[in-house]
């Protein structure tokens, strides 16, 4: 690709996250959505017309076969991620796939194998590692500003009120852990760099899935992630990074906007507040990176191959500890609620 050319994106489906997150970030990054594919022609055409996508296509395969498409965004229901991300890779497209990448570690391994054998570029859609705020956190921890990082306390809550929302569907691999609990797990992987060794998780069950969960994941070197997540509170996203000589408080670790603050409290020093976020939309930095890679201006970072299996394993261990099915094919609903210890 020429340095002057925008990346041309294809979108599989008409999910709300594509409208609310991807498309505004594409506008900010200077790239374009050239086609959206869906199963319902009228709905797909309306999505394209209402949100500035150049054209609509019948079905997902038509997007993958489109020679004008450089990269594909996969925001389909969770059980469809593996199939269509693999198909996009085999079609020679770069892929940004919504999280969780698949519904279990075995499927994650298989999809990563497709990326490896095709030589394709696959990213799982955790976009916070690309953002200026996260880069500053990594810099602070690497510099020893709070000593050795030993514990992360993180939350992600927002209300889900419509019973038909697929986040509340067991066959769609819904539930708080898979939808939002995976964010703290991804952060812990990024900052700890160790596998999870043990999990203790309590879950509050709805009709089919857990609607709230909280627990402790202990990593191989003894560090801990304490997480809480769910669908019953007003929006709440925080993270505390606790070190041997201080802490960092992050008010919006997952989707920060300009003005979002981090507060550094180092031993013997006055608190320091910073606002590193510059992009208006949380996906923008990730999309800029994808564009730079496709233009051969940068080497790829944060590929799924570096993190997806670790997150899938952590998620599987947490679900097992909470007595939940390991994936959408394991049963129609969760097992008994409670706190269970699981180690590996």
From TrEMBL:
Query: What superkingdom heads the lineage?
Result: Bacteria
Do you know which Pfam families this protein is assigned to? GFO_IDH_MocA, GFO_IDH_MocA_C3
List the InterPro entries hit by this protein, alphabetically.
Gfo/Idh/MocA-like_OxRdtase_N (IPR000683), Gfo/Idh/MocA_domain (IPR050984), GFO_IDH_MocA-like_dom (IPR055170), NAD(P)-bd_dom_sf (IPR036291)
Q: Which UniProt keywords apply?
A: Oxidoreductase
Which parts of the sequence belong to the Gfo/Idh/MocA-like oxidoreductase N-terminal domain? 7-124
Q: Disordered: where is this region?
A: 324-344
Domain called GFO/IDH/MocA-like oxidoreductase: residue spans = 135-248
Q: Which PANTHER family match?
A: OXIDOREDUCTASES, TRANS-1,2-DIHYDROBENZENE-1,2-DIOL DEHYDROGENASE
The Swiss-Prot or TrEMBL record describes its family as follows: Belongs to the Gfo/Idh/MocA family.
Q: Quote the protein name from its UniProt record.
A: Gfo/Idh/MocA family oxidoreductase
Organism, as annotated: Microlunatus spumicola
């Amino acid at each position: 690709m020429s340095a002057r050319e925008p990346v041309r994106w294809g979108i599989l489906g008409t999910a709300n996250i594509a409208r609310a997150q991807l498309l505004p970030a594409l506008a900010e990054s200077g790239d374009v959505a050239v086609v959206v594919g869906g199963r319902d022609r009228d709905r797909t055409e309306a999505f394209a017309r209402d949100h500035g996508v150049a054209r609509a296509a019948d079905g997902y395969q038509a997007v993958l076969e489109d020679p004008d498409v450089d990269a594909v965004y996969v925001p389909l229901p969770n059980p469809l991620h593996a199939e269509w991300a693999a198909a996009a890779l085999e079609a020679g497209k770069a892929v940004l796939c919504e999280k969780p990448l698949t519904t279990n570690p075995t499927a994650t391994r298989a999809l990563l194998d497709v990326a490896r054998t095709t030589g394709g570029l696959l990213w799982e859609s955790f976009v916070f590692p690309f953002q200026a705020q996260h880069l500053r956190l990594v810099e602070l921890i690497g510099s020893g500003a709070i000593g050795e990082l030993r514990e992360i306390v993180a939350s992600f809550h927002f209300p889900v009120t419509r019973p038909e929302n697929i986040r509340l569907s067991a066959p769609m691999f819904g539930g708080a852990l898979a939808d939002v609990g995976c964010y703290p797990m991804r952060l812990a992987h990024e900052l700890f760099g160790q596998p999870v060794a043990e999990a203790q998780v309590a879950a509050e069950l709805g009709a089919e899935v857990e609607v709230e969960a909280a627990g402790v994941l202990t990593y191989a070197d003894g560090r801990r992630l304490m997480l809480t997540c769910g669908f019953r509170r007003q929006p709440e996203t925080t993270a505390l990074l606790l070190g041997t000589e201080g802490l960092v408080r992050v008010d919006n670790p997952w989707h920060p906007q300009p003005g979002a603050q981090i507060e550094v409290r180092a031993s013997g020093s006055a608190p320091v507040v910073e606002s590193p976020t510059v992009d208006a939309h949380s996906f923008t930095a990730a999309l800029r990176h994808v564009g730079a890679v496709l233009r051969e201006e940068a080497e790829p970072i944060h590929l799924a191959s570096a993190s997806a299996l670790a997150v899938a394993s952590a998620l599987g261990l947490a679900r097992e500890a909470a007595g939940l099915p390991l994936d959408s094919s394991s049963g129609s609903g969760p097992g008994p609620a409670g706190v269970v210890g699981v180690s590996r």
